[in-house]
Amino acid sequence: MNKAYAITPIRTDFPTTGGCADAPVLRERGQREVFCGLTGIIWLHRKIQDAFFLVVGSRTCAHLIQSAAGVMIFAEPRFATAIIDDRDLAGLADANEELDRVVTRLLERRPDIRMLFLVGSCPSEVIKLDLSRAAERLSQRFAPTVRLVNYSGSGIETTFTQGEDACLAALVPQLPTAPAQGAPELLVVGSLADVVEDQFNRLFQAMGIGPVMSLPSRRSTDLPAVGPNTRFVMAQPFLGDTARALEARGAQRIAAPFPLGVEGTTMWLSAIAEAWGVDAEHFAQTIAPARERATVALAKQRERLAGKRVFFFPDSQLEVPLARFLSRELGMLLTEVGSPYLHRQHLAEELAMLPAGIVLSEGQDLERQLDRCRAAQPDLVVCGLGLANPLEQEGFATKWSIELVFSPIQGYDQAADLAELFERPLRRRALLSVKAA
């Protein structure tokens, strides 16, 4: 084999035992408090710059997206809602004809659109619509200028981050097929802020790793090719369906922790570098400046956060890697780490690095979790927006889970910013306590 095309086996020597790897999981099924998958549109429409997201839903769906995005009425965002109204409910209008009319009017008004996502929601009238068939029909009509793709963002089926998983999984069948022979290619899977993606790409280039592609790509016309020579690494832990779809097309996953904090970023990059046969000394020299800056910046945050107790309600599926970061790099004490879903394979390295003996929960029974939180009396609660204000009223400092998804938090240069997101509510609570006194 041509040496330039040689690739070493995918790294498997990260810890996968110990810690919480084999710990019992408290599985709960009850009342949930979570946003629906439509929320993922807020960061996806920023990432894919020539795409448009058309939600087929109710006025409630429209209000949710508008509120989450904070978009003024005179702005022209790349998302909208085709609202099911009284005529549709009464059966006075043909839903498919109405959808065709809305799509046609939208594409006439926005000729810059190159990919249009039809996003299903949870009203029963929407569930009855075959949006996948509608996407196929409309794709034939508007090809090759516009491609239409369908996925579901229904809150019945998804938590809010799983909207991205559904979107990317729907894109995988659209990806070109990579040649069976040729150089291996790296695919970074999961939405990253452009600044973070650029930082990683500079490190990859310095290490001689490439070509490097992203899913989602910034332009829908630049969809990455995928095949047996594709090695993909996950940048987000909530992309289980997307990973399965890529593996079904022959791509191989690089197992690694997630790039949160100095340690997580180093191990993530190390797994990729080892798969590409990068010399260990060259790897260390390449990452040294950024790693040192981040280590120094985190030392200041550790002084403020070490010894503080934190409780995670299940919300984003980022909870396990975040808990690892807070525990190992900032010295925080974990009381409970809850997540909507624990993917044992994708989180194996993360779970092994959590301290033994913590409560690890999957799913939600809200009242029981609230009781455990009150009993634990943590210094900080990480939870959804719906719980934050009531818990603040009870005297708890809270951090919104959704802010951790909206913010650029991956990589070395963002490590201190990530720590500050947890330190800020504690500082605010301390200031309020002083004023109250």
Q: Averaged pLDDT, please? A: 89
Number of strands: 14
Give the biggest beta sheet: 6 strands, parallel
Give the spatial strand order of the biggest sheet: 1-12-11-10-13-14
Residues in β-strands, percent: 15-25%
Low-confidence stretches: 1-6
Q: Which structural class matches the secondary elements? A: alpha/beta
**What is the share of helical residues?**
40-55%
Gyration radius over CA: 23 Å
Coarse shape: globular
List the helices and strands and how they pair.
Layout: E1 26-29, H1 41-47, E2 51-57, H2 59-69, E3 79-83, H3 86-89, H4 95-109, E4 115-120, H5 124-127, H6 131-142, E5 147-152, H7 162-171, E6 185-189, H8 194-207, E7 212-215, E8 230-234, H9 240-248, E9 252-253, H10 261-275, H11 280-305, E10 309-312, H12 319-330, E11 333-339, H13 348-352, E12 359-364, H14 366-376, E13 380-383, H15 385-393, E14 397-400, H16 401-406, H17 415-436
Parallel strand pairs: 1-12, 2-3, 2-4, 4-5, 6-7, 6-8, 8-9, 10-11, 10-13, 11-12, 13-14
Helix pairs in contact: 7-9, 10-11, 11-17
Summarize the structure.
By secondary structure, the chain is of the alpha/beta class. 44% of the residues lie in helices and 16% in strands. It has helices at 41-47, 59-69, 86-89, 95-109, 124-127, 131-142, 162-171, 194-207, 240-248, 261-275, 280-305, 319-330, 348-352, 366-376, 385-393, 401-406, 415-436, and strands at residues 26-29, 51-57, 79-83, 115-120, 147-152, 185-189, 212-215, 230-234, 252-253, 309-312, 333-339, 359-364, 380-383, 397-400.
Task: Please supply descriptive tags for the structure shown above.
437 residues, 6-stranded parallel β-sheet, 4-stranded parallel β-sheet, 16% strand, disordered N terminus
